[in-house]
Amino acid sequence: MSISKKLREFSDALILDEETTLQIIDVTSRIKKEIMDSFRRRYLIDRISHGGGLHRKTSLSNFLEVNMYVYINERFPPYHDIIDELCSFLQTSFKNRCKTSRHGVLVEVSGLKISLLIARNFLHEKLTNHDGKSQCEIQNAEGIAFLIQNMCGKTTPFVELFGPSLQETYVEFDRCHSEFTHALIRLAKYWFLKLSGVGLEFNSTLLYIIELLAVRAAEREEKYGNRDMCNALFRFLSLFELPHEVDIFWTRFYDYEDSPYSVRNERPLLLDPCNPFVNLLSGEIAQRMSDLWFVAASTYSRLTNAQKAGTFGNMDFLLPETPCTFL
């Protein structure tokens, strides 16, 4: 069996099983009911939707990213009072550890790490044309239109306040890609998570970046290669070699010109596919990318040797022997 086929088999083995899926449905349904029963009228909650985890094709059985978006009518962020009260409420109701984050609440229930993100509801703004768009695409389009109209002279923190309002669309972004892309994403995430470890305070932004880099690598392999999983993994690892030359964006949910010139002119550039105002590789994250090249180079070398020898056990064989402390 070829290395590529073994990589694909390993990736497929990471897919969520039915038991875990049912567990996610049960836990998130209970959380949703508790919140809606207790806070819907007080905080004008329009709806609660799912993001990562249940409705994603790239979640791993050994690391579940369960995001829930709580959409608020009329009020604009920040939502400090809602976040504080929800954290206290969930800690009491589920008797599990819970902590606040900038945009919501992190809670662990039945072994599942769940992010509750508080977001402004834009479904009813009607600022743009929405023919044929899904609910989350309308939410995204309205949010972007609002920010374009209102961000003149505003600073980056103003835009960041509305980040959760645009993130649900990533489910659609995920679905529009092939099974081949999903398989590479699972391998890339497994590689990164094994390097960095997992905890309640895990930096989800870095994992998001890894996932998007895998998307681009898979797209290139599908366009220029032969949908070979080993070659796609090589393409992914190569993206870390010259991080300051990275220039990646997608225009499924917005026009390239929607991104401010000051943002899209930055290098390295990895525009959030759901949010044209965010370059995910700005600031200190770019240094993390440079640091990761040393690890990626080691994995690249090990994968090359495995390909030449025609032997491969699992992804752990491709990891460096020393742990990564800089992640």
Automatic annotation (TrEMBL):
TM regions (residue ranges): none
Top-level taxon: Eukaryota
Alphabetized GO MF terms: 2'-5'-oligoadenylate synthetase activity; double-stranded RNA binding
SUPFAM superfamilies in UniProt: Nucleotidyltransferase, PAP/OAS1 substrate-binding domain
Domain called 2'-5'-oligoadenylate synthetase: residue spans: 171-284
Signal peptide: none
Pfam families (alphabetical): OAS1_C (PF10421)
GO cellular component, one term: nucleoplasm
Recorded family membership: Belongs to the 2-5A synthase family.
Name of this protein: 2'-5'-oligoadenylate synthase 2
